[in-house]
Amino acid sequence: MNKTYPVKGFVYGKVSLENNVVVVNVTPRKNSRAICSVCHRPSPTYDHLKERRFKFIPLWGLAVELCYQPRRVKCPEHGVKIEKIPWADGKSSVCEPFKLFLAHWAKSLSWKEVARHFKVSWQNVFESVHYVVEYGLKHRCLDNVKALGVDEIQYRRGHNYLTLVYQIDSHCRRLLFVGKDRSVKTLLRFFYRFGKERTQQLEAICSDLWKAYVKVIKRKIPECVHILDRFHVMKYLNDAVDQTRRAETAQLKHDGYEPILHKSRWCLLKNKRNQNTSQLARLRELVQYNLKTIRCYLLKEAFGHFWTYKTRWGAERFLKTWITRAMRSKLPELKKVAKRLRKHQDLLLNYFSFKERLSNGIVEGLNLKAKLTMRKSFGFKRLETIEVALFHTLGNLPEPPATHRFY
Ligand SMILES: [Zn+2]
Fold it and tell me: How many angstroms separate the CA atoms of 67 and 319, rounded?
């Protein structure tokens, strides 16, 4: 204990084994004075409270607990107060190093699993992660942010959205903000918190075409390059394929044809390169029919070429041709997307001004990670809990200092 977690002003005493729990007695160092928990100044002792137990990191499969009798101080300023206990704050019964330990494991395991493995309550795990996140948010540095990504994510069932703002610079990628809903107010709240000075230093921002976002970005940072990123464009196109497929399946069934589009959803949405042989065979079979879905799929695939251009003007020429093809395709869903892209052509082409500095997969990667966190935290009812979980895995937050790392 002295080697890994020395505590100033206190000494470790007797260690005993009680019902498979290693109990470590802690006493104040002789002549040391207790510290007022309000003003953090040494004060004379008033009395002693009942013995309390604090959970420490388990050892050899045994739970470890610190046993201490807290003092009350008579602070000249605050009156009778409980002393400040350096290894645990407030009412918490989990020692600080154990909190860091649990929070560390909560990055790779679900909170439930962490609780089970280390024999603590779910609440203890939440408390620990919350502690670490709170510290991190307080101590993170928000300077030097040049590029932002705005994304939305669904939570709970139904149309509940969270707006997530990421930093997507090549030197630092992390979650900066979580806001309820995806309204104008939500994003404004981010800029308000981010501050005027930092906002003025922004150079690029990626987002989808959600009206509220576009509006706020135009109003708040008109000089910043607004980019419609690849991930969201491909999402629009995939949605168009999916909707076309659904409508056509229904139509074919209605007309009495065999259900050829049945179970083909994945081979249509996946990128060609990522398909296995049976999916490719299925695709080949599907292509023989002159189906709307297939034409829509092929046009979607053709759009992939757009991202390979080296120059803005080359991409612009390609985009024009592609939009013309899409508009003549007689595919209402795809036409809708084409119209949107035509309207926001500038945002789409802005990608080529920043191509060197923003790799394509960033927003997508962060989105994927956020979704995974949401899935792992499935069942979290309170928004605060979801927020803590997201910041914990994606925030890239600074950790509280420690004399020894137990993990
Ligand atoms: Zn005081």
Answer: 70
Distance 79 CA to ligand 1 centre (A): 7
pTM of the model: 0.84
Angle formed by the axes of helices 332-343 and 312-327, to 10°? Answer: 150
Task: Give residue 35's domain range.
Answer: 1-90
* pLDDT of amino acid 140: 95
Give, in degrees to the nearest 5, the angle at Cα 71 between 67 and 74. 170
* Parallel/antiparallel/unpaired status of strands 204-207 and 147-154: parallel
- DSSP letters for 46-115: EEE---EEEEEEEETTEEEEEEE--EEEEETTTEEEEBPPTTS-TT--B-HHHHHHHHHHTTTS-HHHHH
Looking at the fold, whether 218 and 311 belong to one and the same domain comes out as: no
Answer for the pair 133, 395: CB distance below 8 angstroms, yes or no.
yes
Binned average pLDDT, 10 residues per bin, the chain of 407 residues? 92 94 95 91 93 94 94 93 90 93 92 91 93 96 91 83 91 92 93 93 90 91 89 91 88 72 67 73 68 88 90 93 93 93 92 74 84 77 88 94 85
Residue 172 sits in a domain of what CATH number? Answer: 3.30.420.10
Residues with CB under 5 A from ligand 1 (ion): 36, 38-39, 75, 77-78
Residues 271 and 375 in one domain: no
What is the whole-number distance in angstroms between the Cα of residue 72 and the centre of ligand 1? Answer: 11
Pairing between strand 52-59 and 62-68?
antiparallel
211 and 292, same domain (yes or no): no
Same domain (yes/no): 222, 238:
no
12: left (phi over 0), alpha (psi -120 to 50) or beta: beta
CA-CA-CA-CA dihedral for 110, 111, 113, 115, to nearest 10: 170
- Distance CA(119)–CA(98), nearest Å, equals 12
CA of 77 to the centre of ligand 1 (A): 5
Q: How many domains, the chain? A: 3
CA of 100 to the centre of ligand 1 (A): 28
